[in-house]
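User: Hello! I'm new to structural biology and keep hearing that structure can be predicted from sequence alone. Could you demonstrate with Galactokinase? Please show me the input and the output so I can see what each looks like.

Assistant: Of course. The first part below is the input, the amino acid sequence of Galactokinase. The second part is the output, the predicted structure written as tokens.
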Amino acid sequence: MRVADAFRAAYGTSPQTVWHAPGRVNLIGEHTDYNDGFVLPFAVPWGVSAAVTPRTDKTVRLLSLQGHSEPVTIASHEESTGWTRYVVGVLAMLGDRVAGADIAIDGTIPAGAGLSSSAALEVSVASALNDLHELGMTPMEIALLSQKAENGFVGVPSGILDQAASALCQEGHALFLDCRSLASRTIPLDLASHGMSILIIDTQVHHEHSGGEYAKRRAECESAARKLGVPALRDVTDLAAALDRLQGDERKRTMHVVTENHRVEALIGLLRAGAVTEIGALLNASHLSLRDQYEVSSPELDVAVEAAVKGGARGARMTGGGFGGSAIALVADDRLESVRQSVVDAYAERGFQPPRFLPATPAPGAHRLA
């Protein structure tokens, strides 16, 4: 195992445990999680593996196979920078329950693709520490602690979607999650039996959620909810009346969140009815709403979606926080090449960097490797 071998080379001993946590694709339900709404992600085959041995002092030594060739030594939480904040944040949230650790990280998620490498990193480390220190945390508690690390330590005001998907997803299924109650259930996502696939289109335009736009969207939603007198936009029941009371960006953000929650429920209904090929229209509607009402798309994402549909996809939309990253397309297996070529040609016409295509197969959530 590559990450265990790297751990031995760096620290001179074998790791006490190795955990893997996946990235995720959100099938539908974007920017609804921090509005107490509904989401429907599934785990992808790529993720982050963490080889970990605890220490008796507070020192954290971190080696990334995708980073520096030598471990980074962090003597106090305040010293962490860059990607190390996600790991150190997890230890900080665990507090006195753990001391330091020697850690090696190996990630296979395409960087910047919007497939949530940060949550996979947090969940893999939290799962390993939970195992080693026998903390008894459930997968949801691991997800919540990881989210707390990202919110409170890294400073990204993200919802629970990414961490919950990484910790709780099951192979061959999507995860329906109520982000208020945290109730969840698995939804079978058997695309192959219908001759369908989800194709990830990585625009290779990278984004950084800790930038101001993501936080601005969340603040606009919270402001709109206060003006409407509801705990969160999830609680809006009369959309027309709510929109009459709002203006500008807050009106548009509310329109997206309320209709996106309805789209999640509608898509689950179609999946439960076995109408997999019919969900494409909901993907299209989600993208238009994210583009026009939530304003988190980008030219590269819009072109990917439009070209995929033109090439024969049943539906497509951006996935993840936006401003770059990836789109997903629902494609019949016999149209995959046509869709790929359509997107490649559209990118070439506009002088965009060539996109990358990844097949999305619903994978298992966090699990121990060794």
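User: So the tokens describe the shape?

Assistant: Right, they're a compact way of writing down the 3D structure. Reading them back into a model, for example: Residues 13 and 325 are 38 Å apart (CA to CA).
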